[in-house]
Amino acid sequence: MSKIWTNSGDSHFLEPDDLWQQRLPKRLADLTPRAEKEPDGEWETVHVDGQSFRRKLPSSAAVQFVEESHKPKGVRDARARLADLDKEGVWGEVIFPSLGMWASTFRTPELLKACMRASNEWALEEITAVSDRYVVTAQVSTLDVNDAVEELTWAAEQGFKAVFLPTTPHPSADDWHRSSWEPFWTVAEEAGIVLAFHIGTDPVDMASGGAGQVYRGPGGAVMNYTETTFSGQRAAMKMVASGALDRHPNLRVLISEGGATWVPFLGDRMIEGYRQHHMAVRPKLSRDPKEILFSQIYASFQHDETAVAAYDHMGYKNVMFGSDYPHMEGTFGHTQDTLKGLFDGISDETRLRITQGTFYELFPHVPPVPADAQ
Question: Which residues are in the Amidohydrolase-related domain (predicted)?
């Protein structure tokens, strides 16, 4: 079989470690995350925004594995990245940040606002300017709604088409189902900006070892990896049940890396809750929750065989492939093998929708895959 070209609803870029220190005034730069390894090599002390905590480092075997997954030069070089994508058969891609994972540990609104602007300006200069195949997600402070609205307005003016949102906002802010976020949804809808939630981004106690460290002991590794998927489902649930998407029918939400088969189940569950508990339901929706979910929520996956079935047999059409470049959970190095396995015996209509059509529905500004490449 010839190469199957795809777009990707999920990928990542590693910014320079000192990006914030280099771009912020010293009084703020000194508050950005800084780690000091202890002599034993097993622990480190992290300083961020006037706080310090000690955390255990991953084992040497785990570090080596992670480093292997980050070997592609394109993880830090947007020009070299194009060669990686061409080799894998990936054309356009949504790109999420890495430094932004620290956002939930900040407590000073001015500092977080400045860091988000610095990251956005850098991304425009170093990634967006390189290729129109890249859909770089803007970053906003979720510590303060007004700051988030201001940054999203600026980002729209700069041409950003998506904004990265953690599956739960900053610990000091209202959750996504609260009315305080209404101005943010309005700006996103009017600007045509996709809300891109990435799984595994709930605020965590960084001292516990980082995102996903929920379980320890037997089965911990598998349970922690599985646990990360649920946060995306909760974000989608909040956006539907709160009426945010019903009030903003042109707003589109992407849940990246969390699979797709959960969407039909969640729709069924929400319909049942809405029907069986109608006396207590607030707000009342103008459309049933499953219809809202199916029409406004898009979901990306990488290896899940059931995601194709969600499209073919469960009526859910907003299924999108994502390579998760270059993470160890992703398909880098075997994207073509993965795609050929997923779409063996599957119709061209289904394959083209999942690999390209769904992506272009959200990001029509990305150039089409060249005809001579297909």
Answer: 116-356
Is the pLDDT score of 276 beyond 70? Answer: yes
Distance CA(313)–CA(220), nearest Å, equals 33
The token duo for 173 is 């802010």
59 found inside a domain: no
Residue 243 lies in a domain: yes
Residues spanned by the domain of 278: 6-28+76-366
Please state whether the predicted TM-score (pTM) of the whole model is above 0.85: yes
Q: pLDDT (tens digit, 9 = 90+) per residue, 19-66?
A: 999 999 999 999 998 888 888 777 888 888 988 877 777 655 444 444
Domain-embedded: residue 65 = no
Helix 145-158 × helix 182-191 angle, to 10°? 10
Q: How far is CA 67 from the centre of its chain?
A: 21
For residues 335 and 331, what is the distance between their CA atoms, to the nearest angstrom?
5
Give the phi and the psi of residue 180 in degrees, each rounded to 5. -60, -20
Q: Residue 173's closest CA among 125, 222, 112, 84?
A: 112
CATH number at residue 325: 3.20.20.140
Q: Distance (Å, rounded) from C-alpha 287 to C-alpha 305?
A: 30
In a domain, 169, yes or no: yes
The number of folded domains in the chain is 1
Among 5-9, 39-43, 338-342, 370-374, the range scoring the smallest mean pLDDT is: 370-374
C-beta pairs of 334-339 under 8 Å, 24+ apart in sequence:
335/6, 335/88, 335/89, 335/90, 336/3, 336/4, 336/88, 336/89, 338/302, 338/303, 339/4, 339/6, 339/89
Task: Give me the half-sphere count of Cα atoms (radius 13 Å) on the Cβ side of residue 174.
Answer: 13
